[in-house]
């Protein structure tokens, strides 16, 4: 009898506990607070969306990405091509179709986690900045300004770039090497191991400082311009946009294209310096990017300022914008495709939080 009473008591307590838990979950749901499992799933979906967006956008413009890097480090006394079309033709003629996509596998291996972390970090930075901004202004309806979006984008860019920088470093070397290079990196992991063994851990972060400085205006302006343009279009409804409809894919592509153009133009010289610094210490870099000219000095820079000074002194100010044309042709569709792909994939996966929220 006592046993039956104990069981009944235990069952009753269990039922009460279950009801209380359900009531708490219902209360949290009404207040807009998600259960931990739901939050983790939403984070994973957001990361997947960002990764897919990065992979699609970079693969679409891989030939232009490789040409840009080759132009950035090309020997000024042994120029083999000057323009976008002539450069693509030269790569096709000397290395074939595969040459156009050399380094894209490594690039995707880098850009997928980079893009995932970048988009997710941007959303979290926006949420944090919004909370601080509303508490500081005592206005719970306040929205992010373009300057605050710029700050959130800069934070996201620095976090994402720092997490994946070693992969970007070796990707640059793999992209530069050709079939005739004295030494061949067989892939990303082989390149990472070789650089670590021959040049040390710090070599994996060569060019990190100009990357950090450059990513602030680049990624920051990308997000700020994209979000601000979308908000302006939704509020002002120019060009005959419907009053009650969200922006279409074409309009979002145009916003992304404008964002990419502004960001890459401001940050491009730092990207050139970063790429050149990544070649420092590579014993085969001279024969690959400097040609066989005996009067060309070794590729050596003591730091970012020294790299700027030597580049401008030896090749002129225009050298800081080498590869800008193919990069401009590349970055406009790349940024546009990335933003739209991100939002489309999130819609498919059913993620509630949007980049604009």
UniProtKB/TrEMBL annotation:
One of its GO terms (cellular component) is mitochondrial inner membrane. It is found in: Mitochondrion inner membrane. The keyword Zinc-finger does not apply. Belongs to the mitochondrial carrier (TC 2.A.29) family. Solcar repeats lie at residues 41-128, 144-232, 247-348. The keyword Mitochondrion applies. This is Mitochondrial adenine nucleotide transporter ADNT1. Keywords: Membrane, Mitochondrion, Mitochondrion inner membrane, Repeat, Transmembrane, Transmembrane helix, Transport. Gene3D superfamilies: Mitochondrial carrier domain (1.50.40.10). The gene is ADNT1. InterPro entries: MCP, MCP_dom_sf, MCP_transmembrane.
């Amino acid at each position: 009898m006592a046993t039956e009473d104990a069981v009944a008591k235990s069952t009753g307590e269990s039922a009460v506990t279950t009801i209380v838990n359900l009531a708490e979950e219902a209360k949290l749901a009404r207040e807009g607070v998600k259960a931990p499992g739901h939050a983790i799933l939403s984070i994973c979906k957001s990361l997947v969306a960002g990764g897919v967006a990065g992979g699609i956008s970079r693969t679409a413009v891989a030939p232009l990405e490789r040409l840009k890097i080759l132009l950035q480090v090309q020997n000024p006394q042994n120029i083999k091509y000057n323009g976008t079309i002539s450069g693509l033709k030269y790569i096709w003629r000397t290395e074939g179709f595969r040459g156009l996509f050399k380094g894209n596998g490594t690039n995707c291996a880098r850009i997928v986690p980079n893009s995932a972390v970048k988009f997710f970090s941007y959303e979290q930075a926006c949420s944090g900045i919004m909370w601080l901004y509303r508490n500081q202004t005592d206005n719970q309806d306040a929205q992010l300004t373009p300057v605050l979006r710029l700050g959130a984008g800069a934070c996201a860019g620095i976090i994402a770039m720092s997490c994946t920088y070693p992969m970007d470093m070796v990707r640059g070397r793999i992209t530069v090497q050709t079939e005739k290079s004295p030494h061949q990196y067989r892939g990303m992991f082989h390149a990472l191991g070789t650089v670590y063994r021959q040049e040390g851990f710090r070599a994996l972060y060569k060019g990190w400082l100009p990357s950090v400085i450059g990513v602030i205006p680049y990624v920051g302006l990308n997000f700020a311009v994209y979000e601000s343009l979308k908000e302006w279009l939704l509020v002002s409804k120019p060009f005959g946009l419907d009053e009650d409809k969200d922006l279409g894919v074409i309009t979002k592509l145009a916003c992304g294209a404008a964002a990419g153009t502004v960001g890459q133009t401001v940050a491009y010289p730092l990207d050139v310096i970063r790429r050149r610094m990544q070649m420092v210490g590579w014993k085969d870099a001279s024969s690959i990017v400097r040609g066989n000219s005996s009067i060309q000095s070794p590729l050596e820079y003591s730091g970012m300022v020294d790299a700027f000074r030597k580049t401008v002194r030896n090749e002129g100010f225009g050298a800081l914008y080498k590869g800008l044309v193919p990069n401009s042709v590349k970055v406009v569709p790349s940024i546009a495709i990335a933003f739209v792909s991100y939002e489309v994939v999130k819609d498919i996966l059913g993620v509630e939080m949007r980049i604009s929220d």
